[in-house]
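Narrative summary of target 7.
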Amino acid sequence: MRFATFLSPSLEFFYRGTVDHIAKTLGIEAELVVGEDYEGFRSGEYDAGFICGLPYVRLADVVDPIAAPVVDEPRYGDRPVYFSDVVVAHDHPAVCFRDLRGAAWCYNEPNSHSGYLTVLNHLASMGETPGFFGRFDAVGFHTTSMDLVAEGVYDASAIDSHLLALVKPDGLRVIDTIGPSPVQPLVVSKRVPRDVHSGIAAALASMPQLLLREARVARWAPVTDETYEPIRAMSARFHTP
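Modeled conformation, tokenized:
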């Protein structure tokens, strides 16, 4: 099987270890590659993968969500959710989101729920649009956003809270939080036999504890298409492609 990850390189060790465990448990050959195009799930290039919830709802006709990680911290409530933590540099004057009117804001990329879509939704809840900011720029991975904010190139960004807990650079502080949202799923192509779907779900239930702890994950929890309905509704609201 060919798995692809479209998520942060900082968590690639966790996804690679998960794929290795699945292969060993099921007695199959499997590899993990860095995904380049989500259409690979439609063309058959990828059999499974680790993707954000927003691309998942666009691919729900060709892939099924199998499970998603539960972050091992109290605020996650033993649920497969995450937050978008709004960060600024330590010496920035802002103390909450509303203080960022006119600020230079960066986000990872438009296929991201945590960095992009949920921010559009939060702005709308305030009666605002991205025009609330002086700049609203895509810059790449969340780690790039964090570095640019810490360096003062941008004022603020919304960061995947799981990733932030793992790799938060010195010089950043959280001033607000958006969420929770359904966390990124492991998806499997509908072309893959159903017994393999079930086998992967069972393998995830027996993950090595050392790998889980290194990633600050308590367990993999089962998820379904319904889990991602809030993201689907949000995507439809903002007509994201």
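The chain is about 35% helix and 25% strand.
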